[in-house]
Amino acid sequence: MRRRLYFVLPDLACAIRTANDLLLARIEDKCMHFIGRDGMSLGELHAATVAQTSDLKHSLQLGAALGLAGGVLLGAYLMISPPEGLDLGVGTLIGCTIFGGMFGSWASTLIGLSVPSKQLAPFKRDLDSGKILLMVDVPADRVDEIHKLVQREDPTVADRGEDPAIPVFP
Predict the structure, then answer these.
(1) For every one of its 170 residues, what pLDDT tens digit does the chain have, with 9 covering 90 and above?
(2) What is the set of domains in the chain, with CATH numbers?
(3) Cβ atoms of 128 and 75 closer than 8 Å
(4) Please, are residues 143 and 31 in contact by the beta-carbon 8 Å criterion?
């Protein structure tokens, strides 16, 4: 099981030093995700993906659930009162449910890509002031070690806690 730790780093030089220290501590580069303000160059650092900075996951789940529910309702309505001359069976219900789930997922994903992540809202002020957010995914048994390592290198680093539910899959 992995945990996501959040650190606010004061500048790019500190972020690069921290990334190098984490690499020396055998934390893979793909487990480090850096976010700066819009337009800020992070150089060689591993920038966070769109899925990590947007509300994609939440909107996908919500859209799929609403789409499935809408598909079931449409399929049931078509089965109960089919159009004139058509004999619709259970396949209609299944087809409408699948289509509804896919359409809901697609539509909500388009919306979710443009909505900032609610998990990053507490860091907005820091990011706007030019600081860099580090999200690092570490094994649960190394959380304390990584906290000490990051803060030992630069005492101005703000430790903003951890999220035990992210990432869902190790």
Answers:
(1) 778 888 888 888 888 888 888 888 898 888 889 988 887 778 888 888 888 888 888 899 999 999 999 999 999 999 888 888 887 888 899 999 999 999 999 999 998 888 888 888 888 888 888 888 888 888 888 888 888 888 776 666 666 666 656 654 44
(2) 2-52+121-163 (3.30.70.120), 56-112 (no CATH)
(3) no
(4) no
Rounded to the nearest 5 degrees, what angle is found at the Cα of 35, between the Cα atoms of 34 and 41? 95
Whole-structure pTM value: 0.73
Q: What burial class does residue 57 get, using C-beta atoms within 10 Å of its C-beta: 0-12 exposed, 13-18 middle, 19+ buried?
A: middle
